[in-house]
Amino acid sequence: MKTLLITVALSALATGALTQTSEVPDNLEKLSNFQSTGVTEFTYVEQGGAYAAGIERILTEEITLPEGFKIELYAIVPDARSMAVGPQGIVTIVGTRKDTVWAVTDRNKDRIADEVKNFAPSLTFTIPNGPCFSKDGFLYIAEQNRVLLFPAAEFFYESPDVAAFNLVSEGDLIPPEEESFNHSARVCRVGPDDRLYISLGQPFNVPPPEKMDLYNEWGIGGMIAINRDGSGREVYTYGIRNSVGHDFHPETGELWFTDNQVDGMGDDIPPGELNHQTAAYQNFGFPWYGGGDTRTIEYTAETPPEGLIFPAVETVAHAADLGMTFYSGSMFPEKYRNAIFSAQHGSWNRTEPVGARVMVTFIDEEGNAKTEPFAEGWLDENGEYLGRPMDVAQLRDGSILVSDDLAGAIYRISYGE
Question: What does pTM read for this prediction?
Answer without folding.
Answer: 0.94
